[in-house]
Amino acid sequence: MPMAGSYLFPNDQIEIERLDNQHELIKILLDNQNYLAPWSRDKNPPSKVLDVATGTGRWAVELGDEFPTATVVGIDLSPIQPNLVPPNVSFFVEDASESWEDEDASLDYIHTRFTTGCWGDMYVDIICKAFASLQPGGWLECQELQDIVYSDDGSLTEDMPLFVWCRDIVEASVRSKRPLVGAAQLRGWLEAAGFVDVQEKVYKLPINGWPRDPRLKKIGEMWQLNMQTGLQAFSYGFMHRVLGKSKAEIEVSLVDVRKDIVNPQIHAYNRFFVVWGRKPESTQMVSRAASISTAASSGSPTVSTPTSTLTMR
Ligand SMILES: C[S@@+](CC[C@H](N)C(=O)[O-])C[C@H]1O[C@@H](n2cnc3c(N)ncnc32)[C@H](O)[C@@H]1O
Known about the structure:
Elements: H1 13-29, E1 48-52, H2 58-66, E2 71-76, E3 89-93, E4 107-113, H3 122-133, E5 134-151, H4 161-175, H5 186-193, E6 196-206, H6 214-240, H7 247-261, E7 268-278, H8 282-298, E8 310-311
Parallel strand pairs: 1-2, 1-4, 2-3, 4-5, 6-8
Antiparallel strand pairs: 5-7, 6-7
The structure holds S-adenosylmethionine.
């Protein structure tokens, strides 16, 4: 299974198709939008956009199409982006956890999606660097999955294979210093870095077609397919390489996880966070400058998980 650098997931054809399908799914979840930051084609288009860990680049290409006057750059460890792209879109192979010294505070929109599991510390590696690289008034938007499964009616219990699998994957990600959790802390991290007008929207991603609502049923069916496609690769990446389980052991345990994923009696869901915030004008930034350099040297601050409205929209 080909992989790139410190990233524990593959970048093969199966993964490329999974990422493209996941892109469509998230657009449906966000009511056919690619972003929640306050951009509009006529009144307020972005001018210089960076998509961090762009994957197959679908988001970047669609943003370039929607905003023809913007320059859109996508960076990723893997060169899995298409060659035929709009003239205002380009891709570069770069490790985003390294220094962003080429960025000169001229960007006005930075975006991440499905990147927990890529960084040792998302606050230091991405959020503080994004703050420094944005021009005053620019926006950072993070769209990230909290890789934990929940159910509101007790139909998923802690002894069930799906729950145990998720717990093991999260534990392995923390041990390998690529934590898959962090989405719920994003709002606090953006505020700690100095962003203002920070907003958070949390969506439920049903694990299969269990909801009655047709829109959520469709989203659940797409998410089920996505999990089924990625299950083996995620498991090998973390459980084999990090927890030392043999491939045979993993395959045996996945039989029951697969049964849970397709079981409509289990009303489980993941939580998908969209958090966006604005870099303030320079006069507001002075008091924050010290805290940013402290953060960069001391790691992410402990922030209480904000209470947010969990929406089935
Ligand atoms: C789950 S994919 C998400 C891709 C894309 N953002 C999307 O939503 O479709 C995560 C991507 O992060 C990339 N990645 C992982 N670590 C990275 C790093 N240090 N620098 C740049 N890209 C990285 C991987 O190569 C992969 O393409």
